[in-house]
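Notebook, p. 212. Picked up where the previous page left off. The plan for this session was modest: take the two constructs that came back from the sequencing core last week, fold each one, and keep the raw output in the notebook itself so nobody has to go hunting through shared drives later. Recording the first one now, exactly as returned: residue sequence, then the structure token string.
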Amino acid sequence: MLNRLFLLLFLLFLVPSCWAEKADRDKPIDIDADKAEVDNAKQTSTFTGNVVVTQGTMVIRGDKMVVTQDKDGFKHGTAYGNPASYRQKREGLDEYVEGYGDRIVYDTRADTVDFYVHAKVKRGNDEVRGEHVTYNSNTEIFQANDQGSTGAPQRVHAVLYPKPKPASGVSAAPAMEKK
């Protein structure tokens, strides 16, 4: 338990001061799919078959996506896939945050993305894996939960790379490769 707490605190303090593309929030959400069912009374839309959701640089892909709208107009989308995927450019960098899970929940009000079951989120070379990983696109903070869908404790795994040293005329050592 103490090791997991240390890992979470370690991840929280490693977060650099850049965020997901801020302009993405002001862009429309565009959804392509093979089929759509819209229920205006319930403010729910279900998209199935090769679903691709884009909002600026953010892209979510899955087999199915259920989108609801709350009374304030915020959208909540749940993508299902084997796995479903998420990708968004980071503000001011030529780098992306990527994530995968059997289920991905995107909340426009909280600017969070939750990855469930076989969840994996990558930022650059850094990677966090667990049964539930939450990514806050405002703060770029990852939170990994070790509670599996069966209720049995699962392990959380992270691979963190050191920040590259600035070039000083001496060639840098090659970066570590993932297992």
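Okay, moving on. Second construct, recorded in the same format:
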Amino acid sequence: MIRWLACAATLGALMVALPVQAAAPVYGYRVVHAYPHDISAYTEGLFYKDGYLYESTGEAGESTVRKVELESGKVVQRHDLPAQYFGEGIVDWGQHIVQLTWKDQLGFVYDLASFKQQRTFNYPGEGWAMTRDDKRIYMSDGSAVLRILDSETLASVGSILVTDGDKPVLNLNELEWVKGEIYANVWMTDRIARIDPATGHVKGWIDLTGLFDTSKLPDPTNDVLNGIAYDAQHDRLFVTGKRWPKLFEITLVPPSR
């Protein structure tokens, strides 16, 4: 009995000593402005660069890479993928655009200015989305793991397990680098995870419930929130969804205490 009490006391002391990770805060949003968005664009990837949006779209036979005017939503430049490929996420690196495909384990590298294909590369498993910092490229594949790619060879050189508390966050989709964090759409939800790339921990959530009524779309089950772009120069955050008629500039609203 004495030994059991001693063990219980020790266990209790350990439990007190162990840090408890607080629940990640949930941010709301405020719409700053709404811009037109092409309803034929099944958005898979999005980024902002030098005054334009660059967007990749999916669906076999409909997959594209596009340069888009923000204010009008007009497509000013476009590259169509061969019909057999389902296009996925894109990222810019130097004077190139890198694009994934969904299940073909094949990626494309284009010239940023002309959209001409320059080379291909391979990777195992599925390709969903990409973003970057100044040194590396990050890739999602629909799991809770983000791959780290060498920016020149595009080979995998590491990985990040994304967790909320002690639970892996599955279905990580479209990615964007924002102020040292990786923002990630979680597929089939109205939430964006704010991920610490050093630890993989979710530092916060952005709840975009009510941003757009997807029941008005022809295929609300699939035409979900997906697409994040950040204008670092002017601190503007943009979000949209697959075949949505609008792209929204939003600002975050901190959680109430």
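Notes on construct two before I forget. The chain has one domain: 27-253.
Flagging for discussion at group meeting.
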